[in-house]
UniProtKB/TrEMBL annotation:
<keyword id="KW-0963">Cytoplasm</keyword>
<keyword id="KW-0460">Magnesium</keyword>
<dbReference type="GO" id="GO:0006002">
    <property type="term" value="P:fructose 6-phosphate metabolic process"/>
</dbReference>
<feature type="domain" description="Phosphofructokinase">
    <location>
        <begin position="50"/>
        <end position="409"/>
    </location>
</feature>
<dbReference type="Pfam" id="PF00365">
    <property type="entry name" value="PFK"/>
</dbReference>
<dbReference type="GO" id="GO:0046872">
    <property type="term" value="F:metal ion binding"/>
</dbReference>
<dbReference type="InterPro" id="IPR022953">
    <property type="entry name" value="ATP_PFK"/>
</dbReference>
<dbReference type="GO" id="GO:0009749">
    <property type="term" value="P:response to glucose"/>
</dbReference>
<keyword id="KW-0808">Transferase</keyword>
<feature type="domain" description="Phosphofructokinase">
    <location>
        <begin position="483"/>
        <end position="702"/>
    </location>
</feature>
<dbReference type="InterPro" id="IPR000023">
    <property type="entry name" value="Phosphofructokinase_dom"/>
</dbReference>
<dbReference type="InterPro" id="IPR035966">
    <property type="entry name" value="PKF_sf"/>
</dbReference>
<dbReference type="GO" id="GO:0005829">
    <property type="term" value="C:cytosol"/>
</dbReference>
<feature type="region of interest" description="Disordered">
    <location>
        <begin position="1"/>
        <end position="39"/>
    </location>
</feature>
<comment type="function">
    <text>Catalyzes the phosphorylation of D-fructose 6-phosphate, the first committing step of glycolysis. Uses inorganic phosphate (PPi) as phosphoryl donor instead of ATP like common ATP-dependent phosphofructokinases (ATP-PFKs), which renders the reaction reversible, and can thus function both in glycolysis and gluconeogenesis. Consistently, PPi-PFK can replace the enzymes of both the forward (ATP-PFK) and reverse (fructose-bisphosphatase (FBPase)) reactions.</text>
</comment>
<dbReference type="GO" id="GO:0003872">
    <property type="term" value="F:6-phosphofructokinase activity"/>
</dbReference>
<keyword id="KW-0418">Kinase</keyword>
Amino acid sequence: MEEAMSADLTSRKVAYTSEARQPESFNPRFGPSTGVLHDNRKPELQQPVRVGVFLSGGPAPGGHNVISGLFDRLKEYHRDSVLIGFRGGLEGLFAKNYFEVTDDLLSVFRNSGGFDFLWSGRGKLTDDNIDICKQVVNELLLDGLVVVGGDGSNSVAAFLSEHFGKSLDCHCNVIGVPKTIDGDLMNEAIEVSFGFDTASRTYAELIGNLCTDCCSGQGVWHFIRVMGRTASHLTVEVALQTRPNLVYIGEEVEANNTSLRDIIKEIVEVVIERYKQGKEYGIIILSEGLIGFIAEIKVLLSEIQKILANNENEMDSDQLTENSKNLWFYLPEQIRVQLLSDREASGMVQVAKIATERLIMQLVMLEIRERNIPFNATHHYFGYEGRCAMPSNFDCNYCYNLGFTAATLIKMRRNGYIATVKHLENSPDMWTPCGVPFCRMMHMLDMANCTRVPQIIRQLVDLNGPIMKSSADSTVRAPPLNVGIAILSRQAPGMHNVIWGIFERVTEKGGKVFGFKCGTQGIVTKNYTILTAQDLLPFKNLGGADLLGRGREHVLLNHQARKQVLQNVSHLNLDALILIGSSLAMTEATYLAEYFEYKRAHCCVIGVPATASNNLTHELLETNIGFDTASKIYAGLVGNVLADAASMPKYWHFVRLMGKQASYEVLETALQTHPNVVIIAEEYGAAQKTIHDIVKDIADVVCKRAETNKHQSIM
């Protein structure tokens, strides 16, 4: 729960929730079911049922299907049953901000991501407002209240169930539903929280794209922080799916007492070793809560908090202990500023907001440059992209069954239970819906103010569990072509299928395909491989250009380079040279074709337009390879962020898309997602607008939306 209850209220909760209640199971069904569990303690409700529901905490894919399962089950019991949705989480309950859920309203949200049907919130339950909740549910004559949330929200649900259960004038039963993409709401009763499957797949796809991209370009190190709060479940799952070069798990760092300098040293050693192998690229994944697990960082944060508290928020580094002082000045200035500014009302540093990926990247960059080794790196944070993604088939089915289970528990007049589903490793028709008392999952936690509070505990990664066992990496063999192929520019989705098509056509005629490595460099230096079906097999229908690698230098505009290329293709007895790439690559192909024609060379030159920017235009050319895929990926990510913004209406998201000179990707993404503001470079350039004009246009939109109480958007 986000805020601790008073000692008086807490003691009452402990006395009540310690009652020995056992988990209950009933008839497993996929979708609506008539199977229920009967007992003699409380008779089932035979009349129409009135139930309220609200979403709490960060969004997670599948929340709308929880509401769908809940709604369908209630209507199955009695057509006059009513489902009340509270907008904005717990605050909606306090403010009586609700509406009746109907099939027409709900139909467009089924199987969709986000929490935008009801919105979400992070309300806090206190002694002052807990009676307001009872008053509202009594006024609405609710038989049940369903709370969809994580460990904190379900702890709130436990307190509400306790309070309602002890009140003689309240007949509302409270049921919780386990939700969090972080995966830390997991125990003997809960096999997995909903949203985790979708989020891990989303992040794995994005990181997999980066893996392919850096293997194709072979010149960038990517430092990636993955959302997950304190626990590293998402990081572990994503790493198992993508196989990066290095992964840092907070729990493992703490167990091994690894220092920040140890982490930097290990990364530097890996970078240098790969540099010696000619591999100036790689992927490093960091868990969101990593920095909070580093012992020396925890000591430093504790000392900073005390200094600021004693010095009226003024930092005095001389008051730090020697070790903490050395660490303080080891950190980049930008991170030191963030440690002093991003603090909670209590004075605690908001560790999750520290850009760990940027911190690690900057420290590694300083170490590498001192050794005069070329190092190009960039950083990413994957979080909001996964919270409101379209739910996976698993989460769609799982969430519907959770809602179905919650409705069944209310119909059975159970209070203080969390809806769960067992045997999720089986097909949905073999799942077993269950109800588990909150008290079986709650533990007493020692708070900073020396009080003890019952709370559902977040589960960290079990370092001794089977999931931490890694499997061996597979390797791809590159054995031995009349047609040569080279990729001259930045990779675009679909390039591998171009090579596949060429290979199929050439080899069916008995020819060979020569794949030149790293674009023009491979053509000039005669660095090639004769492609086989075995070579192509792992790359069919995959993005990137890592089968051959792409060129970085456009040397074919140089006469001497063209002369060398002619000698090489003549020596290899090539009939054709196919060049894949952007507008500049096609310009090179034109120069080379003209030179070959002038020299009456046997080899012809063919160009294939491939650029996600779609900036190679002609009346005979409808689109470029890669544009459709790239625009759909960007539209999907922007759509996820739009759903996130609508679910928790308090963020403005500024999104910059790749595209260099032409803005086709931006325009196509905007047409698919309809953001509030779109800045098209060509449009603003034609109007001769300045940076000041752009800022003013955005500010006008922000102010206009603020007038209608809309404090979220995307541009």
